[in-house]
Write the structure tokens for this entry.
Amino acid sequence: MRHEGRARHLRRCPACCQVRRLGFADETARQGLYGIAVAVVCPCRAQALRKVLRSLVRPGVRRVHFSKQQDRDRREVLSRILCEDFRALFVVSRGREPEARSACWAQLVPLLLDHDVAELAIERMQGGEDRDRRDIRGALVRADRTADFTYRHVESTDDPLLGLADIVAWTAGAGGLWRARIASLLNSEPTTRSPAPHRPERNRAHFRS
């Protein structure tokens, strides 16, 4: 089942002719808004991208954590990863966990399918795995795609490519000039769902991962 009006379907990789993609997911939240970002990578590029991400880890830390970096360092990191071959998805929902996260999965799973993501690694959140499984499974059932999509929860340090999702989540959520820097990587402007009644924001909220 395809979804009209969504991001362009990714076809065969020109380098390896594969259709299947890998996804790596991380979340971001601030001021009543919650978002999930996914870095979408062809398997033939995964090892090279892991090497790039390892090179971006600062001394004394185990992984890329964009919210803890200075703006100058962020700009340097973005300049580096924008040279790489990958795509990114980002969706947002008003509210807090767990309802906002569930609303994000409802938006995100069809996008993942449209972008041929067959395997998704999700950064583990304590106490949230069962609900994630239920939400993702429900979205897959609605799309009639339960047989060709797998997902797993992993620790933040298990795969360097989770750092790529962390970078996208912070940058897309920051909005303004930050978001503009990665506009070429992203799906179209994300819709914002409301899992529960809310009061309108006076200003456009940004995010912090």
